[in-house]
Amino acid sequence: MTRFLAIPGLDAANYARHELHADARLWVEKNCYVDVVIEMLHALRFEPLAAMGFCVAVDFEGDNFTFFKPSHDEIRSLYGVDIQELNVWRPLIEHVEHHLAAGKLLSTEADSFFLPDTSGTDYRRNHVKTTIIIADVDAERRRLGYFHNASYHALEGDDFEQLFRLKAAPDATALPFFAELIRFDRGVHRSTVELARMARAILGTHVERRPAANPIESFGRRFAADLSSIQERGLAFYHQWAFATIRQFGAAYELLEHHLRWLARIDRGGADDASTLTSAAEDFGLVSAGAKAFILKAARAVNSRKPFDASATIDEMARAWSRGIASLEQLALPSRSAA
Predict the structure, then answer these.
(1) pLDDT digits 0-9 by tens, 250-261
(2) What domains, with CATH codes, occur in the chain?
(3) I need a surface site. Which of 52, 79, 194, 247 has the fewest CB within 10 A?
(4) Which alpha helices (H) appear in 245-310, and where do they start and end?
């Protein structure tokens, strides 16, 4: 037996992705890590929406927004899924076979150049570091099943060999892959009500960690100062900058919007709480939609090198962020301080 499938029945040809990756989403792909965690949880029949409260704490760091990732502790608390760093001391393919045979998953850094699901962007064009979660491996037939971006995919042949560096001569100076081991043998499928109760408490901890200053306002000031420099560097630089900034906060606040709407649907705190959650969701949805419009307008300004006054758009998003945070403070902080 050469094939090891960690999640029985998983098939790239018939995989139905989670609603967070539906085509109707403004940001179908969020970032490489949170995307694969969403689909991994979904494939294990857990509800990923419960884990998205951490997005409330994203902040502007001056040259990028927080690269938002779910806490391993929170994933373990909510679902019983344990994620730990793996010591890659031998060829990665050997670790993959060993752990998938034992019913575990393995996440690893990968090069998008060899991932056919990125056809049209990076596949066989650009060497870009990303994260995949491997669920199916057949080393003899050179086939792999993996979570990446918004879905579950398969690759084979030369892509398999290149991904695992099987063709390259041994290089003592090459850095090992970064990988994580994912155990789900102690997974806990909670009732929706219990999961929402736990998620609400976790959301409160992240509200306490909210940015000290409005991150959209901080971003707006930096954008106004940097626009001419971005225009001088051109569209290629802009796309890298936009991924680190606009895309990150746009995608994060869309995830937060849907997390809050999920809580509102099953909230047991009463109609007022559900209304406040929905109101906050609407405000963060406005920030996300504003980011989507802004990323396109800014691209045109960079391409044309014409002046671009983004102050009205920035102000509108900043006000929506402030309203959303105020609603969450109203919900989370009094209950936590009373406890």
Answers:
(1) 999 999 999 999
(2) 3-30+82-183 (no CATH), 192-338 (1.20.120)
(3) 194
(4) 246-266, 271-304
